[in-house]
Amino acid sequence: MKILSIESSCDETAAAVVEDGRKVLSSVVASQVEEHKLYGGVVPEIASRRHCEAINGVVKETLLQAGLTLSDMDALAVTYAPGLIGALLVGVNFAKGLSMASSLPLIPVHHLRSHIAANYIAHSELEPPFLCLVVSGGHSHIVEVRDYTDMKVIGKTRDDAAGEAFDKAARTMGMPYPGGIHLDKIAEEGNPLAFKLPHPRVEGAPYDFSFSGLKTAVINLIHNAGQKGNTLPVADLSASFRKAVVDSLTDNFIRAAEDTGHHKLVLAGGVSANSLLRARMTEECNKRGWSCYYPPLHLCGDNGAMVGAQAYYEYLAGHIADSTLNAKATMSIE
């Protein structure tokens, strides 16, 4: 089954052709990073306009690279939630129009489910059930994946997401957008024990995260040093901050796995590209004899291939949209 999938939830206009949920025949991503870098973060109105400009060309290029036409497709898929509402609407309305014109069934796909499905492309042997840590700029969840379309959130952030904390801390240190990537690279050169930073926990909710206090602690350190005319060692501060975030993510995830009896662990989302998080999770799983999976770097960020992968299983579950499909800025992965 060949699915043409579309992704436009934030600042990447993407499309892909995916066969049977596992094989990527083509994938095209038009990134807006350079433009949003001017503002230190994503500007929703600009993102929406750029999606409008790019989406037709991206879809055409995707079909061209696959050597296929729309008539060769068995279905269409589109990210409809969650994300920036204006950006989502561009993809949803384009996909609805394409569905009406081609009479192809339209599959609505949840963005976070897509990130998890990126692992199905990279690891042909991976099947539910498993426990997944979904970490990105806007989300930090521990998800019990019982089946391809049956999921339960057992832990989540109470405030900032891990990716948001990375980006804001990096921006305060003077790094360009997207800050998390730059912070990860610079942290490799620093001492992770140079600064003692808080490791917040949520009382009564051992699997939940809280990164707001940690982010504020780093920002206050930088501002206080600046007011005194001092300069902090950026590499050491980056390494210490990265360690604190990864410690929190890893500790809660491993605790949840031990308590729920899952020995197959999966990472997903943009922050799954973080080198320390990958290393720590691999180390912790190896110590326990567990399996650990994470997507290759090119599938960690937003892309159309992951949408097509999840769409295949949504289709098998009978999840088909009609002309009333609308975008939603927020929606539980459940």
Name its key features.
single chain; 334 residues; alpha/beta; Nucleotidyltransferase, domain 5; 2 domains; 5-stranded mixed β-sheet; 10 helices; 19% strand; globular
Summarize the structure.
The protein has 334 residues and is an alpha/beta fold. Helices cover 44% and strands 19% of the residues.
Relative strand content = 15-25%
CATH superfamily of the largest domain, called what?
ATPase, nucleotide binding domain
- Spatial order of the strands in the main sheet? 3-2-1-4-5
CATH fold title of the largest domain? Nucleotidyltransferase, domain 5
Q: Secondary-structure element order, as H and E?
A: EEEHHEHEHEEEHHHHEHEH
Whole-number total of structural domains = 2
Helix run count: 10
| Top-tier CATH class of the largest domain | Alpha Beta
CATH architecture assignment name of the largest domain: 2-Layer Sandwich
- Tell me the helix content: 40-55%
| Biggest sheet descriptor | 5 strands, mixed
What is the mean pLDDT? 95
What is the molecular shape? globular
